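Our collaborator T.R. sent over the components below with a one-line note: 'Predict the complex.' Nothing else. No constraints on interfaces, no templates requested, no preferences about which chain binds where. So this is a plain run: every listed entity goes in together, and whatever single assembly comes back becomes the starting point for the next discussion.
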Amino acid sequence: MFSHKIFETNTLVLIVGIVVSVAIGGLVEIIPLFTIENTIEKVEGMRPYSPLELAGRGIYVREGCYNCHSQMIRPFRDEVERYGHYSLAAESQYDHPFQWASKRTGPDLARVGGKYSNDWHVKHMINPRNVVSKSIMPTYAHMTRPLAVASTIAGEMKTLKVVGVPYTDEQIANAVADLEAQAKGGDAAKAVEARYPKAKIGDFDGKPDEITEMDAMVAYLQMLGTLVDIKSVKPELVNR
Amino acid sequence: MANVEKDLISGQNTTGHEWDGIKELDTPLPKWWVYIFWASILWSIGYFVLYPSIPFLKSYTKGYFNYSSRDELAKDLAVQAQQRGKWLADFQGKEVGEIAKDQGLLRYAMAGGKAAFNENCAPCHGVGGGGSLGFANLTDDEWIWGGKLEDIQQTIAYGIRSGHEKARFAEMTKFGVEGVLKPAEIDQVADYVLGLSSGKGDANAPGAQIFTDNCVACHGEGGVGMRETGAPALNNAIFTHIKGDKTSIALQVSNPQHGVMPAWADRLGAETVKMLAIYVHSLGGGEK
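Returned assembly:
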């Protein structure tokens, strides 16, 4: 009969044994996710985040929004009734890391884009009790300060490109200009719309002269869940 | 395994290991634990067969049941659609006015409208529709874009300044920022509007003429408001975006704030929009 003795009396053999058995478990679980063809649904509309949205996403992560808000509508009737179509894998394919989260102290945000006005988001962020009297969300009034990441955003996009987000050289070269144009509107914003379809343009926080963290945050939130035209997605494409 | 030493006190085998005179017992696992262990392995085999489980490079075993949570949801929604079908057909086919006259449909609309309101509208307009600074109160008689069922339905469906092509849209001139009025004139007209709002509009005040020249076109004679232009009535103390003191009125004249309401028809569907219109109409200010 098989004896453990060789593992129990020889550290090196034990280490090799552990590595082999863990690797089998890991590879069997992970490799098929990359190779099975329908892991990521082939839907249209997903694009990498615009520089301003990306900056907003950075703030979302920095502030730990994922601790209380999920971005994952599960395929259950009650969730679909409340939040809209269930989230597709395709919709978080450019998230590194994804923001599905695991706990909902606040509501799911996967399709919050367009649900409220920019003005509401700003008021709500400054003090949630201003608009929702029973809210237990902390205040994020400090987001009214200027956005500091403008100079590093191109670097962030390059990094994301390394891990597979298909930013073009043109997008990276125009990162700072696009970031400013999306938050200020005007003619320059047309290029942003061309490079990032469906991006919400405009002064989000009511301070036209300044690009604040709030601008980035609201631009990000208003985009969430809006990129894929979910009504045009055929059920047989995503049902599995 | 021939010479296993037995522990004298417990009668169990020992492992033969010894550290500083302490020997290790080789007590077997409890029987109940071992049975559960094997049973769970058997269970997993059943699971492997029945449910999606083993991943391959291009696909995975679908399992005997061919289970998919998304298919499951589609079935759930089909059942729901069937349950609601009779009602929703009425909501699709009938105008809001007809629905509101039918007691059964009205009850259904009120319940559905309330649920949808609390999820989608209450964050801005408050639970119960009381509104707050920047977001209109829906319980009073003051309507910027109209308070009839059809008006409310239209506003909910397409929104206000939402970017939708059928959205309600109007923007007030930035009288100060664009230099249409001088600071002194803005101060005078703010005084006049403050008077109007408290019911003491002074026709001889210096602001009265400025008001007539610049504001009446949209806000109407005497500031009664005009729904076609989305210009709110100024002859009462109800303000949406500002507190209504003189400073805030002057600021609003100089650099007006405009509310934005999203369009809901695409997100919620026409049936829910009708339910919402009926619910909002019932909150206190609905007009015939």
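Summary for T.R.: Chain A touches chain B through 35 residues (CB under 8 Å).
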